[in-house]
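Deliverable D5.2: sample structural annotation.
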Amino acid sequence: MNRYFDISGKKVLIIGGTSGIGLAVARRFAEAGASVAVSGRKNRLQDADRTIDFIAGDVDDESSVDGLFDAAAKKFGNADCLIINAGIAPDDGGKFGAMATDTFDGAMTTNTRGAFLCLNRAPDITADGGSIIVTTSGAADVVFPGYAIYGASKSALSILARHAAAQLGARGIRVNCLSPGTIVTPIQPENDPEAIICKAHTCLGRTGTTDDVVGAYHFLASDESRFVTAAELVVDGGWVGGLTERSADALLHAAD
């Protein structure tokens, strides 16, 4: 019997996989029978994650990125799926004229330069016919106060991924972006202003959970996505759908 969306036996490296969405994806993939390694600055894996391997790596440091890719190559040979997920989400204060240059430099270093360093090494470790998934963000498509710098740092990843898709397609390697919306994690609590606004402004009227987004990564890692590349899969509950009736009513009532 055919097993659709089967990733059992696939070798997966998740960069930025020790917390939040990355860790949820790692656990999902391990449960599905994949051989999974995650990287991060610190090992936050629990006893229940004993089937997941940890490789230390800091995407802010090029030599550290080289070290983690070399270590992954020794473990895997070639990876069937590479997920580039490391990132930070600083609040920039929301007002031009008062934003800190250090905040900009930090976001660009981790989110943009870090992803570039990983993509630059990706051809060395990704197996022919494999899948590379780059985590972007809904903040790259929707203006939200305080996220100008974060959104800018993530928006650059889409064009990097499309260029990588064009270059690696000859090897059958797919390169796609996955753009999550407001996903509740330890660093994105349910009572955060973004989460509160999300409930009124998204088509589905709620925030997301990691369970809502792991399936999209599963799809892009599986052979069922074999004809999908240079694309961006948005998983945001409909935030990019525009003004909902709920948010329109709220704005109209506020104007009364």
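Annotation notes: The CA atoms of residues 59 and 114 lie 5 Å apart. The chain has a mean pLDDT of 94.
The annotation will be released with the project's public dataset once the embargo ends.
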